[in-house]
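Hi Y.,

Following your request, here is the sequence exactly as I used it, all 116 residues.
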Amino acid sequence: MLADYVVDNYSLVKELREKCRVLDDMEWETLVQMCESTYGNFVSRLQVICPTLTKQELHLCILIKLRFSNTQMSEIFGVSVSSVSQKKFRLKKHLSDSLEGGFPEEMTLDRWVAEF
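Below is the corresponding structure, written out as tokens. Let me know if you'd prefer a different format.
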């Protein structure tokens, strides 16, 4: 809960919650570093369990972890909402292939990332 408070008050996250836009490489790096420090090496742990994650898949995990909606993510990625849903579907499959035993059937990608 404290981590969520810190994140919600982080200037870049606050700005994106008010008005989403496509991010540049430096802003993505800022979000990566913030997630690393706030959520116990979140990105590094993801890369350990699934070393083949692409940069875009990692970015998607970060936005899910930061509790952005599909609509907000579509604006940040500059794609349609249905494209975000497709990206999430593919990411879940990719992670499931890397996880021992795969994804539990009742587990959503959003919940898994939130609890990771």
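The helical segments are 2-8, 11-18, 25-38, 42-49, 55-65, 70-77, 81-98, 109-115.

Thanks again,
Q.
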